[in-house]
Design a protein that fits this description.
The complex is a heterodimer.
Chain A lengths: L1 E4 L4 H11 L7 E8 L8 E6 L1 H17 L3 E12 L3 E9 L2 H18 L2 E7 L2 E4 L15
Chain B lengths: L1 E5 L8 E3 L4 H8 L3 H4 L6 E4 L2 E3 L11 E5 L6
Parallel strand pairs in B: 1-5
Antiparallel strand pairs in B: 1-2, 3-4, 3-5
Classes of the chains: A alpha+beta, B alpha+beta.
Chain lengths: ~140, ~70
């Protein structure tokens, strides 16, 4: 897991991840890259991350992947990411294709639902919480 | 005393309160009008582990984190 201030350098990260597993005998590598789209007049998206709980979330997925013979990787941006730049990369390496193809789907969807990351639209120099696109985490409402 | 911190967009300074269980934390936070809209949507962590039980006992120095709705990616 790696956090970067500002936009992700996708080529550098892919190159490093592929090199790190070059001799691991994985037959499959599947990735997902999230890129900021220009819409609603935004200049950028901005992200807050709570790293201790993100690390725990990631560690659980790494264990799940390990039990299937694979590994997962993730990179995410902290702070502002301008439109057309990338904020998020997930990847799965596995011995064969099915594990990687199935795991990337579940990994990316659970990331959206339960990774402790908060998104803001940046427009006219203001940072506005993307409330209508955000999802309460599992267990929300305990204190209400 | 336990510390309560509000993550992401809630935009509140941390609080130090006296509470023996999460239920007591809930009772205190619910008296704060500015938090009433957030609490039904927020998950809770105790010392950086997600928790789901209001009866969870607290001890001196515990850290409780309030996590509003998320949207990574």
């Amino acid at each position: 897991m790696e956090l970067h201030h500002g936009p992700l350098d996708v080529n550098e990260i892919f190159g490093r991840w592929l090199a790190s597993e070059a001799n691991s005998n994985f037959g499959a590598f599947v990735s997902f890259v999230g890129t900021i789209r220009a819409e609603n007049g935004i200049e950028a998206l901005s992200f807050d991350i709570y790293e201790p709980i993100l690390q725990q979330w990631f560690d659980k997925w790494q264990e799940r992947a390990r039990q299937l013979g694979g590994i997962v990787k993730i990179a995410h941006a902290v702070g502002d990411v301008p439109v057309h730049a990338s904020s998020y990369i997930s990847a799965v390496f596995s011995p064969k294709r099915r594990v990687a193809l199935e795991l990337i789907d579940a990994f990316v969807e659970d990331f959206k639902a339960n990774a402790p990351i908060w998104k803001y639209d940046v427009a006219d120099g203001k940072r506005i919480y993307a409330q209508d696109r955000s999802t309460p985490m599992d267990g929300a409402g305990l204190l209400s | 005393m336990v510390k309560v911190e509000f993550l992401g967009p809630i935009g509140r300074a941390p609080m130090e309160i006296e509470a023996a269980t999460l239920k007591e934390v809930a009772d205190i936070l619910k008296t704060d009008d500015a938090l009433l809209g957030w609490l039904p949507k927020c998950a809770v962590a105790l010392n950086d582990t997600m928790v789901n039980d209001l009866q969870t006992a607290l001890k001196e120095g515990d850290k409780i984190s309030i996590l509003p709705p998320v949207c990574g990616g």
